[in-house]
């Protein structure tokens, strides 16, 4: 590696963190910090962004590792690799919502750490190639008063806004879920959000935009659209409740 990949370790067991740091350094990575608390990690990331965030799930303090990843992803698009002794379904399902690049179980082996990071870098390189190949493609969709025209099988088709249920991030793509069909578009969810009519759609999670008229239930951590439960991030829930009150 010409320029070492910068990794931030967020781990509250300092012996483990020191061991991880030594292994990373021996593998040629640059450790830019060892942080024991989630709140401190968020401050550190804002000042010195790493290339990869190596994050323990079960942190002490106000934020666990999953909450740290969720908060970080509101501002930055940094790959997350979880280092954890928690392998139960509840933790895994929560962590999965943050779309991590890998999981490393504690106690870890150097080979596990090495392979997880190599896979992460391979995936990052692949995503950059996809970004480059998508430059200059034709417009993926157009917005009209009551419908979107979206690219589907080399043609533009009309999708009434009333039939769109939600839109889901799918790596560098986004997937429109309508009543009768799904449409995969070559653009990010953020690009989609910027163009959608705000009176019909709202972002509820880094992975989801919903059609407000399709919401049938709002719970503490999720909402329901056509019997499909979609996670709500804390940072978006306040805006959602405001919008619901004014509709």
Automatic annotation (TrEMBL):
SMART domains, sorted: LytTR (SM00850), REC (SM00448)
PROSITE patterns: HTH_LYTTR, RESPONSE_REGULATORY
Residue span, Response regulatory domain: 6-121
Domain HTH LytTR-type: 148-246
CDD domains reported for this sequence: REC_DC-like
Record keywords: DNA-binding, Phosphoprotein
GO molecular function, a single term: phosphorelay response regulator activity
Sites of 4-aspartylphosphate modification: 56
Pfam families recorded: LytTR, Response_reg
Record's protein name: DNA-binding response regulator
